[in-house]
Structure formats: C-alpha cells, structure tokens
Design a protein that fits this description.
mainly alpha
Length: about 260
C-alpha cells in the first residue's frame, strides 16, 4: 500500500470518528476532544514513514513548541470574545498564534525542558481564562455538511503539510501541524450560538485536552529513537489516552 493511499484512508477515519464522538457532548468536552493530536499526530506519523529519525525528532520538537502558540490562541480568543464578536476574536487570536509561532521557529529548547515549559504554560492558560459563566441557550445542531467539511479540510491539510515538509523543514512543519483548524471551527460555532461563555468553554476544554497532546509527543520523542515507528506511536497513543481520561474527569467537575 502506498503512503498516499494510507493517508487517504487513515486521515478521514481519524478525523470523522473524533468529530462524531464530539457531537455527543457540550462545548467544553468538544474542545477537550480536539486537544488530542488529531492532525499533528498523523502528520508526524506520515513523516516518520518517509524521513529519518533526526528529521522526525526535529518535527516533534516543533510540534511540541506549537503548544505555546495554541495557548496564546486560546487566551486571546477568550478575552476578545468577552467584549467583541467572533470576527474580531478570530483575527486577534490568529495574529497571536502566528506571532508566537514565528518566535518559536527561532527559539529551540531541549526536549524535556520544553515539555515542562509547555505543560506549565497550559496550567497558566487555564488560570488566566475568563471566569466561568452560564452558556446562553442556543440550537447547536451542526449542518449536514459539517462532518464532510471537517474531513475534507483535515485530510487536505495533512496531505499538504506532509508533502511540503521537505521544502519548509522539519521544525516549521511541526509548528504548522498545530494550526487550530478544529478549535477555530468549534469556537466560532459556540461563540455565534452560545455567546462568549460558549467559546470560553470550548477553549477551556481545548487546554485540558492539550495535556494529552503534550504527553503524546513526550512519549513519542523518548521512544522513537530507540524503538520502531509502530511501537513508539502505539505507546504514545496509550499514554495520551490515559492522560485524556484523567483530564476528562477533572473537566467534568469544572463544567458541572
């Protein structure tokens, strides 16, 4: 089976399954779900099939560094949403994401200190979010094109990024793998229908879910240089799911 065929099969399955699961819960749990490395994980996996370990490890460092950009995105959108409508909030948050990404492209930290700093920033981000408020009632049923659009956008993004990786380099590839595709969709959707509180709930869930994201790349970075690709990714998935289960219990207490 060719790498392209594998991408075309696995990417829609991963994205579609996660999206369907997310529809069963509220905005916070949907945000928590997309905290998983649903695009960055497949991007690094497909890179590992075509490139050597040094290239992949540099991409892992870049992706983990993208955690700073995601926290900046979340905090900027949340606070802008308190005062402004979604167009201003998304423009401001994407500017923040871009600025931090440019900074991290040129600021390279050792692997374990980087992980500790990213996790610390996630904790700080949770503390700095606007205080909890009631979500305005609203009809939140997605349209019939919502799921196909997510699958198309996500799969196209994975295909594009893995194809241009040799030209833009491993670190920038990793950083761009954290572009908040689904966070943007879900946050705007919640903001429009449920007000600022709905958007903040999505972003709080995203930050909780990012602990699994960081744990996934920690395990992957530790193992990939010493084991095969399959074992490293399977172990990283197990670690991420264990952490994700723990953060779900905490998040459930926060939103109830």
């Amino acid at each position: 089976m060719s790498i392209l065929t594998l991408k075309l099969i696995l990417s829609p399955i991963i994205i579609g399954s996660a999206s369907l699961a997310g529809r069963r819960w509220g905005p916070a749990v949907s945000g928590w779900l997309i905290g998983l490395p649903l695009t960055s994980g497949p991007v690094i996996f497909f890179l590992s099939l075509n490139h050597d370990t040094t290239f992949v490890m540099s991409s892992v460092l870049g992706t983990l560094s993208g955690g700073f950009s995601l926290v900046a995105f979340s905090l900027t959108y949340a606070w802008l949403a308190v005062r402004y409508k979604w167009p201003a909030a998304i423009i401001g948050s994407m500017i923040s994401f871009t600025l931090v990404t440019v900074l991290m492209q040129n600021l390279i930290l050792p692997f374990l200190p980087l992980f500790i700093l990213v996790v610390s920033i996630m904790f700080l981000g949770l503390r700095l979010l606007p205080k909890k408020s009631e979500v305005a009632p609203g009809e939140s049923k997605p349209g019939k094109w919502d799921l196909p659009a997510r699958i198309l956008i996500g799969t196209s993004f994975i295909l594009l990024l893995t194809e241009i990786a040799p030209f833009i380099g491993p670190r920038l590839t990793g950083l761009l793998a954290t572009i908040p595709l689904y966070a943007t969709i879900l946050t705007i959707f919640a903001h429009r229908l449920q007000g600022a509180a709905g958007a903040v709930h999505v972003l709080r869930g995203l930050l909780f879910g990012m602990f699994a994201f960081a744990s996934f790349f920690l395990a992957l970075g530790i193992l990939i240089e010493h084991t095969g690709v399959g074992l490293a990714f399977m172990s990283a998935i197990v670690v991420a799911l264990l952490v994700q289960g723990g953060t779900l219990r905490i998040l459930s207490q926060k939103v109830n």
